[in-house]
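Translate sequence into structure tokens.
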Amino acid sequence: MILDMRTYTCKPGMIKKHIEIYKQYGNAPQTKHLGQPVVWATTEVGDVNSFVHIWAYKDIADRAAKRAAMWEDADWITYTQKSGELGALVAQENKILIATDIMPAPPVK
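Result follows.
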């Protein structure tokens, strides 16, 4: 199993607006293709203008197939356009993590 950890940084004062756009337009098509995230959280201490989500996949091929299908979904494209129009995002960092046998495996759709 792999975990895709994505950290996004918003312009100051824009994180709530971005999350509202995501809830309205992005959550349904994303979870339709990727399943439920392991984590979808904002930051309380540190960079309070950032949020993180972590998605679980069987392997890198599973990730690639699911993300390709998501990018073919018109509803996902609508979300990305609305997000771009808002202009809240200023940075994104992605990490592919390899799960160890120490933590219980989250369900993978």
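Note: The longest strand covers residues 89-98.
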